[in-house]
Task: inverse folding
């Protein structure tokens, strides 16, 4: 297989760096808990988001999901992303895969969620990256009281997750 030319390699590196910044923006916006319009604006108009609560199709449904999630019961939120793999599928289209840990203060409990992101991210005509497909595969939710010393049992993936 032929090695891509220097311009293609540079464009791929730039795309990967932009996507890392985009994911950091997604996490920081989640953690603000009060910027639902900005958060849902990170999704394409016809995006699909899947998580343990279900599938949400289109930006209005995604907005509604986040508005309900951050309805006041969440008092603290911190998302941490690690082991990112960003694959440029074609110019302006990337697959982002990573592990995440989210720490939440919700419903009076300190909670931790371990999971995996599997995202299709596209560069829109306005130059902004947006999620086309966002999969938040929750591997193990727990609280500090329950802990994780005994493990989590078998992993049950979200239907349709690769």
Result:
């Amino acid at each position: 297989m032929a090695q891509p030319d220097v311009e293609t390699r540079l464009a791929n590196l730039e795309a990967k760096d932009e996507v890392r910044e985009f994911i950091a923006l997604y996490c920081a916006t989640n953690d603000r808990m009060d910027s639902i319009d900005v958060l849902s604006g990170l999704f394409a108009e016809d995006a699909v988001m899947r998580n343990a609560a279900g599938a949400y199709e289109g930006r209005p449904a995604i907005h509604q999901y986040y508005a309900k999630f951050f309805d006041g019961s969440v008092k603290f939120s911190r998302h941490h992303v690690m082991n990112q793999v960003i694959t440029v599928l074609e110019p302006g289209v990337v697959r982002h895969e990573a592990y995440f840990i989210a720490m939440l203060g919700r419903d009076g409990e300190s909670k931790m969620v371990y999971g995996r992101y599997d995202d299709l991210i596209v560069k829109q005509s306005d130059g902004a990256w947006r999620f086309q497909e966002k999969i938040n595969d929750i591997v193990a939710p727990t609280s500090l009281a329950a802990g994780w010393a005994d493990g989590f049992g078998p992993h049950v993936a979200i239907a349709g997750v690769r």
Summary: The beta strands are 43-51, 54-57, 74-90, 93-106, 109-123, 129-143.
